Amino acid sequence: MAMHCPQCLTEYRDGFTECADCRVPLAPGPPPPAPEETAEEHAAELITVFETSDPFAANLAKATLEDNGIEYAMGGDDSEERGLSGLSPVGAMPSRFQVEAHLAESARELLDPLIHPQAITEEEADS
């Protein structure tokens, strides 16, 4: 008769009485089937909050989001393809920053200086 560990659900053949990893007595029969999880159950709605082809702006966006504890997904950028120059063989790689929908407004506020850059006045440049 098959046996299984009630903690880690490892199946054992006849003759074993204790789980080698968990050190608990085995239960009779095969382990129960693991609940099936679908990607839809765990999928979060992602909203694009910033897109740029400027590697410097992409790094600023990364730092800003990370410093404020906002998790993000970044698409389009391939640092291996970019290499040290920040350019791919066909030009700058666009980076797209996406966050969960409930964080989109906060992320946009934080990234506003990158989304809507302001020109520096002559007075600011002189100081």
Would you write up a description of this structure?
The chain folds into two domains: 31 residues, no CATH class; 76 residues, Alpha-Beta Plaits (2-Layer Sandwich). Helix content is 30%, strand content 20%. It is built from five helices and eight strands. It has a three-stranded antiparallel sheet with strand order 2-1-3, with no helix packed on it. β6 and β7 form a beta hairpin. The longest helix is centred in the middle third of the chain and has 13 residues. The protein is rod-shaped, with a radius of gyration of 26 Å.
Provide a short characterization of the protein structure:
By secondary structure, this protein is of the alpha+beta class. The chain has five helices and eight strands; from the N terminus they run βββαβαβαβββαα.
Break the fold down into its secondary structure elements and pairings.
Elements: E1 3-4, E2 11-12, E3 27-28, H1 39-42, E4 46-52, H2 55-67, E5 73-75, H3 79-82, E6 87-88, E7 91-92, E8 95-100, H4 104-115, H5 122-126
Antiparallel strand pairs: 1-2, 1-3, 4-8, 5-8, 6-7
Helix pairs in contact: 2-4
Q: Compute the gyration radius: what is it? A: 26 Å
CATH topology of the largest domain: Alpha-Beta Plaits
The average pLDDT value, as a whole number, equals 82
Q: Please estimate the helix content.
A: 25-40%
Proportion in β-strands: 15-25%
CATH architecture label of the largest domain: 2-Layer Sandwich
- Strand-pairing-aware structural class: alpha+beta
CATH superfamily of the largest domain: UreE, C-terminal domain
How does the major sheet shape up? 3 strands, antiparallel
Give the CATH class of the largest domain. Alpha Beta
Q: SSE string, helix = H, strand = E?
A: EEEHEHEHEEEHH
Would you report the number of β strands?
A: 8
Roughly how many Å apart are the termini? Answer: 83 Å
Shape: rod-shaped
Order of strands across the biggest sheet?
A: 2-1-3
